[in-house]
Design brief:
This protein has 131 residues and is an alpha/beta fold. 32% of the residues lie in helices and 35% in strands. The strands form 2 sheets. The protein has a 4-stranded parallel beta sheet, sandwiched between helices. The radius of gyration is 14 Å and the shape is globular.
């Protein structure tokens, strides 16, 4: 059994409300916990990019990190320029993005639900809900 931070994607309307159509967007996606939850990884990034571009937002960069809450990895890989950072990460990943990119707006696209576990059959179950 593997521990995982359980995340859920925010409603798309809430995500769009954090962005302006004239802003360029860099999507940062966690390839660890969020990927296991089906909210991040390459697939989550692809789906979010398609939805944003379908609404005429400009996605200028894509970054997939394993995990996004690793400050050193994020610092080496993510180069958002002047774009908005849309984080497909748990709250820890969002906090890291805000620490590293103080001049950028960081918009969380996921809600952190709690601590879970990933069993041998591929099921994720919630162990402790965060308040």
């Amino acid at each position: 059994m593997i521990s995982v931070i359980v995340t859920e994607t925010k409603p798309f309307g809430i995500i769009k409300a954090k962005l302006k159509k004239d802003e360029e967007v860099s999507i940062v996606s966690c390839n660890h916990c969020a990927k296991l939850c089906g909210t991040g990884g390459k697939q989550g990034l692809k789906e979010m990019k398609e939805r944003l571009e379908g609404e005429e937002y400009t996605v200028c960069d894509e970054f997939v990190l394993a995990p996004a809450c690793d400050k050193n990895t994020s610092k080496k890989i993510v180069k958002p320029g002047k774009s908005v950072v849309l984080a497909l990460t748990c709250d820890a990943g969002v906090a890291i993005m805000k620490q590293l990119f103080k001049d950028n707006k960081v918009a969380p696209a996921l809600d952190t639900v709690g601590l879970g576990a990933y069993d041998e059959e591929g099921n994720i179950f919630l162990i402790k809900k965060f308040e």
